[in-house]
Each structure stands twice: as structure tokens, then as C-alpha cells.
From TrEMBL:
One of its GO terms (cellular component) is glycerol-3-phosphate dehydrogenase (FAD) complex. InterPro entries: DAO_C, DAO_C_sf, FAD-dep_OxRdtase, FAD/NAD-bd_sf, G3P_DH_FAD-dep. PANTHER family: GLYCEROL-3-PHOSPHATE DEHYDROGENASE, GLYCEROL-3-PHOSPHATE DEHYDROGENASE, MITOCHONDRIAL. One of its GO terms (biological process) is glycerol-3-phosphate catabolic process. This is Glycerol-3-phosphate dehydrogenase. It catalyses: a quinone + sn-glycerol 3-phosphate = dihydroxyacetone phosphate + a quinol. One of its GO terms (molecular function) is glycerol-3-phosphate dehydrogenase (quinone) activity. It comes from Pseudomonas saudiphocaensis. It is an enzyme of class 1 (oxidoreductase). Its cofactor is FAD. Belongs to the FAD-dependent glycerol-3-phosphate dehydrogenase family. NCBIfam families: PRK12266.1, PRK13369.1. Pfam families: DAO, DAO_C. The gene is glpD.
Amino acid sequence: MTDPTRTTSEPYDIAVIGGGINGVGIAADAAGRGLSVVLCERDDLASHTSSASSKLIHGGLRYLEHYEFRLVRESLAEREVLLAKAPHIIRPLRFILPHRPHLRPAWMIRLGLFLYDHLGKRKRLSPSRSLRFGEDSPLKPNIRRGFEYSDCQVDDARLVLLNAMAAREKGAHIHTRTQCTSARRIESIWHIELQRADGSCFSLQAKALVNATGPWVAQFLEENLQQSSPYGLRLVQGSHIIVPRMHDGEQAYILQNEDQRIVFALPYLDRYTLIGTTDRDYEGDPAKVAITEEETRYLLDVCNAHFRRQLAQSDILHSFAGVRALRDDEAQHPAVVTRDYSLSLKTEQGAPLLSIFGGKLTTYRRLAEAALAELKPYFPDMGAPWTAHECLPGGEDMTTPQELLAEVLAKVRGIDEALARRWVNLYGSRVWTMLGEARSREELGECIGQDLYTREVDYLCREEWATEMDDILWRRTKLGLSFTDKERERLEQYLRAF
């Protein structure tokens, strides 16, 4: 059986394997340049590394210590671009860096922040400054001095979703829960075999193949393509914990530790604090990664060394872990392995294979442009780069989130500000697509729980590839932290009948 979404027997220009941020970014960019694109993802979009991040769009202040100036400069420039592209899911955030003199001298931090302010274009974000902490500080009394600078917070899973939607709207075909079982070159064309979760199979052809499988990039090369990996791959586990909100205010904290690493304590979903991340080498199946007791103790200890409020294991509401697939640069410690990306292009029989190693959320768009530059010799008629100046779905026709919030509250009767704000932060201007003709709470259908109505669930299944409960609760809406067992059961029932 051939690709059921294909209306012609002609091969696709590009087939992308992997539905994380790099895969969907490349698919969207390529489709917008006029290429025919198909993407397949074995699980749900953003179901692994791309939804297990610290949820930041940032330049990487600590990368300056490792002299990664190009990466920091590119990341800082992208911070501005992405903030303009998706103002509903990306917001500015001020970071407080408590000064601990025995770890890093003040002059070093000032120099680093000066570079951070000036290496990249900074139009929307405020510059860094020095701070003195008073009696009302949530930090321990002995921490009296610090610094403040700007970065951005992002809904990581929705960043992936919006790029997949952009790719689809540019003509790409997106297949979730569809595994690539094999791919082989025959007369300058890739012949690709795919299998859906229900066991049914189909095939397609493509002129170029992009391996964007993240932690599985080397495994895919070796097992599916029978090729050796051009780079060594280092799998690094990063874990996070979520606790009740630790302090008032919207600021985040970046905490220095004795091992020279840093840990973030980030405001999360109004009611929580997100703490992470760790860095440890990982072996095993990346799909089965989970936080360890050692990592949990580490994160708690770092926070307890800084904050007046002391955390215990019992305060942890949720934890998650992901595996970053980094190009092995033989660094001694996982924390200093480069977060930069590398692209490997192989051409045999005229059919290119591009494999993606490394990368980070902040630079996904530039990585996609670099990938298309590698493939341009095989598609000389492809269009010019375009993604820097076009909004992601929901960011178009939008002034500010605050103005859209006021509009939703004025036009939808019976809803409160918390629900309207959640909608605006998730869907931006696409909130009207989600609502359809509904203009009152009574028209939203059944409330499954936590102000999640069936109209929204229908939209997520119809437009955002959601098929299972975790797709909706953890990657589309982030309501998993507040849903009760009874509400989960009702959502499961509704999805089975959808």
C-alpha cells in the first residue's frame, strides 16, 4: 500500500523521520520553500526530548564559560526572532542569579552578562543589572547580592505542534504514530516502508531522506539503513521536578552549585515551580528514561542551599526526564558537552541522506535553514529562506496576549479569566478556530475536568493529532498536573468514543 495521503505517484522531495523540534522545523521550512514533504513520527509529536526540556528560549549564559560564542550569539538572535513568531507560547522572563563569591567572582559574572547583553540583537528584552536582596527575599539571609538578566520561557511541546501545523498548512503530510521500518536507495530514490500503531503498513518514495530521530539518530542509521554513524553520540539525561510555587512574583532563579553547574527554578503554570536540570550520561532505551533518586536529591539540595523555604521529597508533585542526543566531543563531564548541532550529509546513487546531531530548542529554526542549505544542490529550484519573518500558527493577527485575553473575555460569556488566559497562552489567535461558533460556556460541551471542555478536546483530536490521554494532558494542555483519577477516566472514555 502506498501513502494514503498522496494523490500522485511522484516521489516526495523530502521525507523526514522524527517528529521532535528539529524534524518539524525542517519539514515546515522545506514545505514553505515549495518542496513536497512527508514526516513520520513513531509516537506522538514532541513525545520525547522536545517536551522534556527546561522550557526556555535562551542564549545559554553558561555556554560562555566554555567559549561557545557562536552558539550563544546565534541563540540570542533567535530569541528575538522566536518571541516575535509565537508571542502566545513564548514570553519574556527575568532571571535572578544569586551571587556566591566562592563559586564565581562578581567581575566574571558582570563580564558574562555584558557579553550576554551585547553578543546578539536585543530589542524586546531588558538589559542585565546588579541587585541587592532585602528582608523580603525568598533567598537565604546570607545571600545579599545578585544579578538579573532576561531570557524567555516557552511551551516546548506546543512549539513542536505549531511547527507541525505550519508544515501541514504549507502542504506537508504529517504521519504520527507511524514508524519507519526500513529505507533503501533504488535508482536515486529512497524507498521507505512505514508501519502504523495498528500494524498496517504502507510505503512511499522520496528524493531525499532526513534522519531527525534525536536520541535514536545513530540507531536508525545502523539498524534501519545499515550504515555507520559519522559521529559518536553521547546520550545525556536531564531531569526536572515540579513542586508547589516557591515564591511570589514572576521571576526565575538560576542557581550556581558547587560542581560549577547551574540549576533553574522557574515559575510554571501559575501554581508551580519547575526545577532542573541535571546532566548525567545515559545508557539504555531513551524511551524509558526516568529521574533517579540521586538526581532528585541533587535538585532538592541545590534549591535548599539557596532558598529559605526548604523542600523535601514529599513536596514533589511530578517529575520528568529526557535524553539529549549530543555529538560526542570527548568532554570529560556531560555538563560541558557542546549543545551545538552538526549535520552529516551522505550521497550515494544521487539520493541524499541528511542526519541531524545535537541542537536545542532555541536554535531549531537556524538548524532547519542550515539543513535546507545542505540539500539545496539537489533542489536548485527551492525557495528562499522565509521562516524568520512569518508567525507560527496562533501568532498571526495578534497584537499582544493581553489584548487577545480582553477580547476573549468580552466575546465568550460565562468564562473566567483563568480559562481565557489558558486558551490564549495555548492557541493565540487560533482560539477562535478552537471555539468555532461557541460564544458561551454552555456551548463548549461537557466539562471533562479542570475547565477542559469537549469542544477543546475535539479540536485537539481533529487539528493537533491528539489521540491518547497523555497527548492532551501533558503535551497539548499541561493539565496533567491537576487532573484527578476520575477526570482521567472520563477523558479516556471520551477519546475511545471519538
